[in-house]
Input
Amino acid sequence: MNATEIPFEHKMAAHCETGTVTALLNHAGMSITEPLVFGISGGIFFGYLKSSDLPFPMFILRSKPGNIRKKISKRLGVKFHEKHFRSPEVGESALDEAIRQGHPTAVQVDFFYMDYMADWQRVHINAHYVIVFGVNGSNYLVSDSYYKQKSVLDKQKMLTARFAGGMMAPKGNMFYTDHIPDNIDLEKPIITGIKRAAFNMTRLPIPFLGVKGIRMFARKLNEWPAIARDIEDLSDRVMKINIFLEDQGTGGGGFRYMYATFLQQAAAITKDDRLKTMSKEMMEIGDKWRNISYFAAKIGKSRDLGPERIKELSLMIYAQADEEQKFFNELYRLVK
Amino acid sequence: MKEKDLYIDGKNYEMILFAEKEDESYDAIKSGSYVVKHFLSDFYLKKENLDKALHEKLKEGNISPVFYYMLMQDMGPGDLAKRVGISKRKLRKHFRPGFFAKLDDVTLQKYAIVFGITVEQIKEINIH
Output
């Protein structure tokens, strides 16, 4: 196979997994937006994580990678042809075969090997998704929702990226749409998605997840100066709060803006004005996360990272936990 | 946030954000990044300083190239050990120059793939 190109419309998206699933569904003829995919899958979340797999404690703002596709499949009845592989060779030929059959195929990769991105962006994270829509010689044609245009990636690099080990190892994971039912009614999946997200945020009995996780983040932030290597490392970590909230494919405000957009679209579909009010509230919560990221970037840049400043940041985050607890409790009551 | 307040001008790096439009509907907009626009030089400065400090330590024989690349690429030891396919205990040994010098090319190749470099680069970093 020397050159195959499946006609595919490239579109930038806020987040890689929702963007990829949305693009595949759109390609297969289903009209759905990225925020709806995000909301129906119940993607909004929070977690504070610390592990030897991570260079420093970090937080997540969305559900586990892979969950968005799984939940969309379950709630909308869409069937994906999905596979993992033990052997890189088998994984590679399966991808080639899928392309030969004309399926644009999503693959899970280590972001580090996506060499069309700028150097400063490329980090080792196994939870990135791109769509492969063709082959040209020794390159794959790639549609990456974080990149402004279609791009190419060397086949060998793609193989390394798909079979990188480590945390959340992709194991060659790939999927494409198999079957989409006619006339999908979105109302019920929307309600299920909201209920699940609100449950996960407020009712999980685990201290580092949901709003409890936001509180843990606020509390543990005060310990960061002690575990950072030096002031520059601390500055880098604090500035990463901004990057995690805004730049790493969240749509801004730590996914909260995208969720507000989902609630607005959900209100129109379900004809429930209460969801519209909630969407405005969510937008305001997103604004406050955005203020936190501005503040973190500013104190990080000026190296103004004394205990008072960190405390100030920590209090801002505590306030967010209270707001989100109130919000998601109310949302849960609305859809119960 | 309203589109005009959220939008950041930045042609070389664009991303999608969701914002409030004029008609109060929420939708995706293409925008630059706040951090990239204002603070990218600071990021490079810190990276450069870290690079210099680690090179000093390499010269003094306090750390090995494995440790250097792990820090430069901001990886956790558990994650790196899993990627290379060794135990964390063994990885910690490879942080020491003495142990690193005894590594065979097969192991070095595994590190080189993870770090996205060649075996020569990982060996030569000590000299520069």
Q: What stands out?
A: Residues 3-31+79-179 of chain A form a domain with the Cathepsin B; Chain A fold (CATH 3.90.70). Strands of chain A lie at 3-5, 44-49, 58-62, 79-83, 105-109, 128-136, 139-143, 151-154, 174-179.
